[in-house]
Specification:
By secondary structure, this protein is α/β, with parallel strands linked by helices. The chain has 15 helices and 14 strands. The relative contact order is 0.12. It has a 6-stranded mixed β-sheet with strand order 1-2-10-7-8-9, sandwiched between helices. A 4-stranded parallel β-sheet has the order 5-4-3-6, with helices on both faces.
Length: about 400
Amino acid sequence: MTLDKVYHAAYVLKDAARKTDLIAAPDLCAGGNVWLKSENLQVTGSFKLRGAYYKMSQLSEDEKAKGVIACSAGNHAQGVALAAAKNGIPALICIPDSAPISKIEATRSYGAEVELVKGSYDDAYARALELQAEQGRTFIHPFDDEDVIAGQGTIGLEILDQMPDVEAIVVPVGGGGLISGVAFAVKSLRPQVKVYGVQAAGAASMLRSIQKGKILTLDAVSTFADGIAVKQPGENTFALVRRYVDGIVDVSEDEVASAILALIERQKMISEGAGAVAVAAAMYGKIDLEGRKTVCLLSGGNIDVNILSRVITRGLVNSGRNANLTIALIDKPGQLEGVSRIVSEHGGNVVSVQYDRSDPSMAINSCFLTLGLETRDHAQLQEIRAALNGAGFEIVEGPTVNGSCRV
């Protein structure tokens, strides 16, 4: 890796990739001066076009004629597909059959041939290598390739150009191609700038490898942030991260869900799980950003709408804005009216009601009343709970009853 290569990548990409905006996000992180690098608004919806396009621009005419092959859960596939189309190169993409249908169809729409592979990313990777050997295509690695890393590093150049006084940059990490490129470019030009990585807790392969001082392979990954669900970091990326990155943290699924919801509500921006992990780390204080001018990199916005709906629901529950309360009642007229009045007096909104008279553990003349509530936050929810208890209503703690969650 050389800085000249990153600058050359920026030159090659000037007519192919957008110079994405830095957007102020003053309300996302208490005490932090946070800006968002909006690669979720990049062509194809993620940063991946940069590395794929630059890699293909460096192929010989013979290599271009034979075509390229890649494997991806979605974003790299779209980047390779569009880059190949722009360069007139035949492209074949192996995608796990579990990938969101929106990403699969988007890849096809850019003109690439798609082969769905049963299993995970690793199965798609193995199949891509088989086809590469059979057909002589050039393999476009999603992260462990110097040209790909250089392409991603152009984001670091853009950040320094857009915000010369930036003090910290927070970057999502999967296999490590993005953070390797960004950290290399930034540290080569402005070594005092801190660069931090963030992984999903269920797929923290780079974090665990850095902690052990050697490349580790996770037995399994578990996260809805499919764009960073990588079992093993690359050799090139591991070496670059060890040398140039100041630290790596992880975030939980609930923290990522809350970050996605915050981006929608406060910034009017859509991010996928992988794209939001940097914001989640800032929101939940995983990195000390107090008083520091910070850029959080939103790496992608290609989230399946079905997943988005579930993520929003999870985010609302985590923030105390959606909740279920199960109350044990004597089954007599007027009980629901009394409960509803208390909820209303404290500003809550009842959105669903369910009675359960069948639980064998209750008295014959009793029932469980489960209310679905909309509230402002956890504090308001606790006010409602306290008021109900004060009025003599018993809020039941425990497991699910006939599908109704007791809170």
